[in-house]
Structure formats: structure tokens, C-alpha cells
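Researcher: Next entry in the queue.
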Amino acid sequence: MPLISYPRPEAGRWLVRRAFRRWPGRRGRWLDLSSGTLRQDSPGIDLPRVEDVRPGPELLYIPPVEPSQEEPRAELIRALGERGVALLVQCSPGDAAVLDVEGASVVFDLLDDLVRRSLEGFSSLPAGCTVAWPLVAGISDDPELWEEACARLAGAGVRCIQAVTPELKARDRQQLVAESGGADELFDSLFHRRPASERELAVVAARHGLASFFRPPSRAGSRHERNLELAEILALAGEIWLRLGRSEVCGQDFFRASHWAASTSIEVRAVALEGNLGVVGWARAEVSELILEWASTGCSKRLEEWLGEYGAETGASGA
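Model: Structure for this entry, 319 residues:
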């Protein structure tokens, strides 16, 4: 089963670099993390074979399946992990088991719970996990709902709540209205109002000690793994830089540098430490400084400061 390869990681798309072109999916509505859309499938194809996936640190997206396929999916995840494939595994609150597979990051999709306005399952999520919060007007963009949900998530030890504003088709909106009994207020919200911004949710999350962007585990192995880690940091920096309303040109430089880091054959860390970042002479000072900081320390204080600014109380507007 062929894969789709994405040319660069995107923070808003969970830094996924690979996804299956065909996937059995499930009949119930779910949030596709790699595309930001809602899906309802008619499962009828087999799960992919382990042999079809080459090992590597590029993050591979593993979507949900029908309950009858959970065990085969779990076996696939274990086998891929043993082959050294980095995974982003999507689950829902209440799933029977969450696999502890080396190289696998688990994201819990809260869509069904939010449509039902049921938060009970949030308190039993595993500590250290990440959740995806779909922002849908009239359903999941109420600040009071955010406060209660973030309190529950923080109490469970959840590390991160990342907002997603899904692209809704007319059919999606109509189904959501029908499930609510055809309420006029929800109809108006879904069809005529934009949901609250992702940054507004980030402000509430920060008050509860929750991060707002998924960060894969550090990969400090091969040259390619180190370069990919830098690419993800640069992609997140570019996303935050633009969401803070700063220079579009510089933001695009961060994305360009991210693509370069992920595809270059040179050891970026060594080049930076040797003072030879002239090979990316097109990069602005902010980009070169972040690369050098990462090369020297393994992280970026600048990026953490920007993330803090994004979740600050005074910045509750914008994307």
C-alpha cells in the first residue's frame, strides 16, 4: 500500500511526514489529523502490510479503525515500532488499551466526546499524552467549556492540548445540526459563524499548565534524525512567528530552512558549530540564530519564549 510523503513538517498538521494513501478508517465520524478534515468511511480494505513501510524517523500517521480492527491495528503498530518507524497513533478516550511502543506518540481525538458534551473520559487519559481539540463553532469553542476541560486534562497529567480548526463540508454541518435536534442556534453557529481562534484556547490551556503544540520525542541518533528534529523545531518556529503577527518574509524563511534541514545531506549541527552557516546565507538572522542555539544546546530558548508569548493572557486574538 503506497504512502503519501509530505515535503515538510507542519506544526498545524502534527509534523506528520508520511501517511497511508488508503486506510480502512471507521464508519463513525473522526478527525483526520493529517488533513484537518472530518471523515466517515465505509471500511472495506485491509490494513497495510508492515513490509510496505520502510523504517525511518519520518513521522507516520496511524488513523483510527473500526472496533473489530483494533487488535490487528495494534499488531501493526507493534511491528512498525520494532522496525524503527516513528509513529503518530490516533486514539479516542475510552479506548481499551493504549500501546506503549517505542517511537510511537499517541494523540487522543476528543471530537466524539465534544459533540456529545461528555467530558467524563478526560479525567482518565494517560499522563503525558497529547489531545487534539477540534474547534467547531457552537460545539467546542465555548471558553467555559475550555476551562472545565483543561482543568480535567491537567488533573489527569495530560501534557498538551493542540487545537485544530477542521474544514467542514456542508454535509458535516448538516449532520451535526441534525444530531442536536435541529437547534436553530447551532445551525446559525455552524453555517454563519467562525469558531473562536486557536490562540484563545492556547491562552486557557497555558493557565492550566498545558502546552499548545505537539512535540515529538527527541531523536538524537543518526545525522538524518538530528536534521529532522531541527526541521520540526524550525517548522514550529515559523508557525508561531506568523501567528504572533510578525514578518511574513521571515516566517517563510523559517519554513524554507525547515525544508532544507529535512532534505540536506550535510550534518547541520556540525556546520553550525563550526561557524559555517553561510551555506544558508539566504536565511535571516533570526533563523540562523535559532539553528546555532539548537546546535549548541539541543533546544531553543527563543522558541520557548515565543510559545509563552503565544499563550499569554494579553494575546488572546488571532490564529
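Model: Residues 3-207 form a domain with the TIM Barrel fold (CATH 3.20.20).
Researcher: Noted, moving on.
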